C-alpha cells in the first residue's frame, strides 16, 4: 500500500508540476500578448497622429492653393484692365494725333491764305 501511495503521490506531484509549468507558460504567453497589444496600440496611435498631421498639412496646402489661385485671378483681372487701358490710350493717342494733323493742316492752310493775302 505504501508503494501504491508513493507511486500515486509521485504521479500526482508530476501532474501538479506539469500543471504549474503549463500555468507559467500561459502566464508568459499572456505577458507576451499584453506587450504585443501595447506595442500595436502605440503604433496605431502614432499612425493616427501622423494622419492627423498629414490632414492638417493638406488643409494648409489647400488654403494656400486657394489663396494663390485668388491672387492669380486678381492679377489676371488687373492685366485685362491694363490691356483695356492700353487700348483706350492707343485709341486716344490716335485721335489726338489725328486732331493734331488736322490742326497742322488748317494752320498750313491759314498760313498759305495769309501769304496769298500778303501778296
Key terms:
mainly alpha, rod-shaped, about 120 residues
Describe the structure.
It is a single chain. 98% of the residues lie in helices and 0% in strands. It is rod-shaped. With 119 residues, the protein is an all-alpha fold. The termini are far apart. It contains one helix and no strands. The mean pLDDT is 94.
List the helices and strands and how they pair.
Blueprint: H1 2-118
Task: Write the H/E string, N to C.
Answer: H
Mean pLDDT equals 94
Q: Indicate the structural class.
A: mainly alpha
Instruction: Tell the overall outline.
Output: rod-shaped
Number of helices: 1
Rounded radius of gyration (Å) = 50 Å
- What's the end-to-end separation, in Å? 173 Å
Query: How much strand?
Result: under 5%
Low-pLDDT runs of 5+ residues are none
Helix content: over 70%
Give the strand tally. Answer: 0
Largest sheet at a glance? none
Quick synopsis:
This protein has 119 residues and is mainly alpha-helical. It contains 1 helix and no strands. It has one helix spanning 2-118.
Amino acid at each position: 500500500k505504501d508503494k501504491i501511495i508513493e507511486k500515486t503521490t509521485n504521479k500526482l506531484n508530476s501532474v501538479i508540476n506539469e500543471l504549474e509549468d503549463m500555468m507559467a507558460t500561459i502566464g508568459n504567453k499572456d505577458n507576451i500578448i499584453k506587450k504585443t497589444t501595447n506595442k500595436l496600440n502605440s503604433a496605431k496611435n502614432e499612425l493616427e497622429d501622423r494622419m492627423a498631421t498629414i490632414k492638417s498639412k493638406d488643409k494648409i496646402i489647400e488654403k494656400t492653393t486657394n489663396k494663390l489661385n485668388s491672387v492669380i485671378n486678381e492679377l489676371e483681372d488687373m492685366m485685362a484692365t491694363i490691356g483695356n487701358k492700353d487700348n483706350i490710350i492707343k485709341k486716344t493717342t490716335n485721335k489726338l494725333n489725328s486732331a493734331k494733323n488736322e490742326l497742322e493742316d488748317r494752320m498750313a492752310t491759314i498760313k498759305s491764305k495769309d501769304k496769298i493775302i500778303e501778296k
